[in-house]
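Try this one yourself first.
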């Protein structure tokens, strides 16, 4: 499938050069791999990191799957599971960074598979890896943006009085409409030049870092009742409502929260053709995004878990947040302290913005993968999806990614 000849150098329509006049190392390596520079190489190492960091998005993953962690194992699963998943994720990231330094192309994993599998197995390895990667990316975008749509529904519910106060509960059709509107915004933003995306990516990274630190300190400080250190570090919840009694199996299921959160760092690889000196800055983006996410994520998990005092109540579908655990934590923390849950709703707004940025960066990564995959002729109508516009943006791939992610969410209607 990857048909380029490593010994063939293709001319580029513009030459990205360093301040000393030498050709950008990532640009030069791309030419060595047989690819033409078509995307604008304008991202710094900070911007490259920002895309992966905002896709990992601790506020997104932990918030949306905290219910799963509390149900399966509770504090022990979410606290210790975070480090277990983080350690294995870092090992994978280190390996990917090493390969990325040699093959800094937007194709990322599928291109690497072709080169590492050898001539005999290259087509199969590249094809299977590419399709798993791109379908998985579309599914991630679907999941992130649908999670935001659900959170908006919860915010509306709490803002109108909560489930026990006659609050408005949006139908599944309205949630799908929210999902479609969010994807539309993401497609429009991703149609902008890469310089604008770079700005939004850095803003997203800053929002995630600041948001985590604010919430991890604010929520347990505001809560009138806090869990003990013994509860946070030793309590194992076996009351999962699924009839599962095996502690090992329960713990493994509880790991899903951490595993779901610590994904998406391959975005740094998919953005390499737009990153300066990508053979060094791409790997830096992968490793730094994982490492910093592990650190700030642990702080967020601790802060939130210290505000947990009654797991069954948080998971009860009849509570004010309709069973959305973290929303209930935020809302009740402020309501118990000040008599009003408005502060908690504002905190949920902070999380919602982080999820929005996560979805935005996910569409960016999706589109670059689709662009590279179609450039190698691996997708139906490949000539259409790898076209770039005057701003050097793979515009068709952007809208394709948004459309497929919308279609994937339609299954909830059935």
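Now uncover the answer:
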């Amino acid at each position: 499938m990857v048909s380029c000849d490593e010994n063939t150098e293709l001319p580029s329509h513009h030459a990205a050069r360093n301040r000393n006049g030498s050709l950008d190392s990532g640009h030069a390596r791309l030419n060595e791999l047989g690819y033409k520079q078509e995307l604008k190489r304008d991202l710094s190492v900070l911007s490259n990191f920002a895309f992966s960091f905002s896709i990992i998005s601790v506020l997104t993953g932990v918030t949306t799957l905290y219910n799963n962690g509390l149900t399966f194992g509770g504090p022990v699963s979410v606290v210790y599971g975070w480090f277990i998943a983080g350690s294995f994720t870092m090992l994978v990231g280190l390996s990917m960074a090493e390969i990325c330094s040699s093959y800094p192309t937007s194709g990322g994993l599928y291109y690497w598979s072709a080169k590492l599998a050898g001539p005999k197995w290259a087509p199969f390895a590249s094809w299977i890896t590419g399709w798993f990667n791109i379908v998985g990316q579309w599914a991630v975008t679907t999941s992130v943006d649908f999670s935001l749509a659900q959170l908006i529904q919860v915010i509306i519910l709490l803002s109108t009085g909560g489930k026990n106060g006659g609050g408005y509960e949006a139908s599944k059709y309205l949630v799908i409409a929210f999902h479609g509107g969010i994807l539309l915004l993401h497609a429009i933003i991703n149609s902008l030049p890469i310089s604008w995306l770079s700005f939004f990516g850095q803003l997203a990274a800053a929002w995630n870092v600041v948001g985590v630190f604010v919430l991890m300190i604010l929520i347990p400080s505001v809560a009138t009742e806090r869990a003990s250190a013994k509860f946070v570090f030793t309590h194992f919840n076996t009351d999962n409502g699924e009839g599962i009694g095996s502690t090992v199996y329960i713990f493994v299921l509880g790991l899903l929260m951490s595993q779901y959160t610590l994904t998406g760092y391959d975005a740094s690889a998919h953005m390499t053709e737009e990153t300066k000196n990508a053979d060094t800055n791409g790997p830096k983006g992968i490793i730094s995004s994982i490492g910093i996410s592990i650190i700030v994520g642990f702080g967020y998990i601790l802060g939130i878990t210290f505000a947990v005092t009654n797991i069954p109540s948080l998971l009860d579908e009849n509570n004010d947040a309709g069973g959305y655990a973290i929303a209930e934590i935020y809302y009740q923390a402020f309501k118990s302290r000040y008599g009003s849950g408005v502060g908690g709703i504002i905190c949920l707004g902070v999380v919602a913005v982080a999820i929005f940025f996560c979805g935005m960066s996910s569409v960016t990564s999706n589109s670059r993968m689709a662009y590279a995959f179609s450039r190698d002729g691996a997708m139906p109508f490949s000539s259409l999806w790898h076209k770039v516009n005057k701003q050097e943006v793979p515009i068709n791939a952007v809208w394709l990614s948004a459309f497929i992610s919308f279609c994937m969410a339609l299954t909830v209607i059935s």
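Discussion: The chain has 18 helices and no strands. The chain has one domain: 41-412.
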